[in-house]
## 1
Amino acid sequence: MNSDEMVVERLDLLTRQVAVITESARALRELRDDLSPRINETVKHLITELAEIEADCRREDLVLLLKNVVRNVRNLNWSLDQMKSLIDFLRTVEPLMKSAVPQAIMALDQLEQRGVLQIGLRALEVFQKIAETYTPEDIEQVGKVVVHFVGVTKKLSDPNTLALLDRMAEVPARMDLSNARPAGPFRMMFALRNSEVKQGLGVLLEMTKGLAALKDGGPMETEVIPVAESSEQPSSSEEREG
């Protein structure tokens, strides 16, 4: 290959390269022509939007924001990690919430229908009135008394005691005070002929024995006789002896 052929070959290579560059430049020019209107519209719109916040956001504010972001990178990373953990927790709890929330709503609806919620609200109002009327020291003193009464109530849980109190509660309903008249010694003597009076006096005597335990807080030494035995009807011979 002589020098002329080499020159021609290089000129062809340069021509092809220039053609590629020219084609690329033409494509870039067309792309610029296509994007120029869009870019101009975007810039104008951005300028308009930034003009609205110009009074609220200045360059110094942006610089300060950038500094705070850089200074709190660790805090931001920690916050993102915690948010990720929270999202994982919510994804885990979501199936349970879907089943638990309707059940809770149904339970609250049943409580409302039964009036439990209204009672709770009234109880809160009562507690509020108590708080307005009494001081915490008064409530503490009342609490001590309530504790003492709980102990007394525990003692009243004995079956014999409960039976006695139950029967004593029925006594007022059986009495007719309209027939009550002044009673002297003779009327009392005639009243002893009544079997019910005898039984009542027997019960009263047994209760009087029990009252001896009230003296100086001493223990009860008398034998407790169930009330059920003293309420039995006496035989006809006992009525005749009375």
Note: DSSP finds ten helices and no strands in the chain.
## 2
Amino acid sequence: MSSNILGKISKERTISAVVIVIAALASILPGGIVLAAVLYVISVIGYLELTKACGVRKGGEKKLNALEIVGILAVTGYYAAIYIKHPDAGTLHFLPMIGFTVLDTGFMISLFLSLILMMSVYVFSFPKFSAHQVMTAYFSLVYAPVMLSFVFLTRQFEHGIYLVWMIFINSWISDTCAYLVGVMIGRHKLAPVLSPKKSIEGSIGGIVGSALVGALFGYYLDSVLGADQFVFLLFVVGGVGSVISQIGDLAASAIKRNYDIKDYGKLIPGHGGIMDRFDSVIFTAPITYFLIIFFMR
């Protein structure tokens, strides 16, 4: 019986993974409004998974509360701001002096307004919500929607149609390599209390594997684009990104442990929710974006 259940779960995970890859291709290749819309939907779902898991919405409540509604409005405003700023793929170039073009007025205003609106709900409905709920709602806004938006911003780079895939190399390739190496030679526990199956050897394997795949990808880009800069760049981005990816994976697991839940949701068969599947991507997206800017400028 158990083998049948495991087989069914494995089949579900495989089918879901294929669907996710197809969806990624269908949204990332065209970029622009298509990618922004897909990321917006994913971000809203991820935000609500977090608020529910972390107690912004009390157990048993089915309707969204005022803090969650403000959060959804904030996500909507934030994605509108970054899309209006960079509507078409290939428009975000590397600035020689500043580079951090994401830190523009619209970006900052949307984050500040979000906090002010949430605090307004807290004040005018007091004592309906606790300070913990308000802080968690804002944390959830930054954790999932804002950090995921860097997939869109990386895609908007010059050559972003290629560079954006480093986000997924840093997360999914790293995870695969870490798993394979851990199964083969893993002996020493990486985080024995939080994730007993992860090993230090597997972690190193993930870092090395991600860096090497990044370098190979960089070699391909150099040949396609007639450049000579991407091998080292993507080698470093792959290695550093893998470290951050593993932290993101463990961070999402730690939150689940704190709140005694198995999965964040049931949206993706065999995987769980958005936060279960994209936990490492959430962390690798911004670090990939900023590493590329740092090296390319």
Note: The radius of gyration is 20 Å.
## 3
Amino acid sequence: MILFDSHSHIDDKCYDNDLDDVIERAENENVQGIMIVGIDINTSLKAIKIAANNKNIITSVGIHPHDAKYCSQKNLDDLISIAKENPCVKAWGEIGLDFNRMFSPVKDQENCFTNQLEIAGTLDLPLIFHERDSKGRFYDILKSNGPKNRKGVVHCFSGTKEDLFKYLDLGYYIGITGILTLKERGKYLRSIAPLIPEDRILIETDAPYLTPAPQKNKIRRNEPSFVKSVLLRLAEIRNTDPENLSQIIFNNTRTLYRVDF
């Protein structure tokens, strides 16, 4: 079985004391690729430092919708420079809309989102999307802004079947997290996950968040090695061989992020 954690935040301070152990445990589970996703300038820079010492770790840069009120032109220009200067930066994100917690006003979120879509297009970088409770606005912006050949992944998909097909029709990958493994919270996702074409699925931890079962019963903090639990549950509900599925998803992730390890 070969695994790629397509979305993590192991730059988080909760890993500062044992990051090497976390990475080693991932390697022991044959996690051969990890994407550390940036949410602002500081996290993007920290992720790049981690990647510098680990050949199978890649990063993204971007401004999360929670921080959209800080999405100044200077901050965007700084991120553009960071992306251009560091070969480990393989995507732009995580960007999008989050109307659930409303840490930034709607107008700021939408402006920040559309500006970053344009930047990613200019830099020819795939996108990592975040969407929560946007009531269709996220999809409307994606559909009306940008080329049809844009590549990206809808991170931590937890929408409806209709949402799923809309994103697939736009050509995007679907990121599946540990939510899939949770008895109640993952019930609906398990019902529609078999509908995702196998060449459009990515798996992710979103570590340190969304710890999957069975680890969730004992450990609060998620980590890349636990992506194996997501893969095994996904293979089970799709009634397919986990080793074969792991290879397909690994190749999907390499294709999106354009890496050859």
Note: The mean pLDDT is 97.
## 4
Amino acid sequence: MVGRGYSIFDTAIGRCGIIWSGTGVVAVQLPEAREIDTRRRIFQVHPEAREQRPCENAELAIEGVIALLQGGDPDFSEVSLDAGGVSGFNRRVYEFACSIPRGETRTYHEVAKALGASGAAHSVAQAIAKNPYMLIVPCHRVLETGSYTDRLSPFGGVISKRRLLALEGAHPVASKTLFEVLLPVAPPRPST
């Protein structure tokens, strides 16, 4: 195989896409409202990818995504990822996200602290928002303190973190401290 390939596949939430290279999975595209929009998003981000039959690694990832979206607990540890375009910090964030057990969540601050970069919560949030490996790297398990947005990322499609966490049986509200419940965190300021 030369270059990048992609494939569209059926899941319990709609038709997802996967993009891969000879090195590994490059990205997972969650379904948009219509399949044509999912394909359009793939072409916008990966114009060099050509539709083809999934390689063995991509097929393993597809099987895991399908299982996860049916409420299963797949093991993605054998799926190779192509991290060629991913910064070192983002890789560390993604590795940490993969260590979060199913049904549990962590905040951006907790991830930053665990990575030894306690002042880097904003950088963690940016890394999560840029996660190209949706579901394989469970960015939906990393939340803003006190709440969580309903969208995964600009490329997350129509499914929300709330829905993915519900599939896993997570209850992120229960993880709030008493202080957070009594004094809700102010919404983040828009970035300029």
Note: Residues 88-167 form a domain with the Arc Repressor Mutant, subunit A fold (CATH 1.10.10.10).
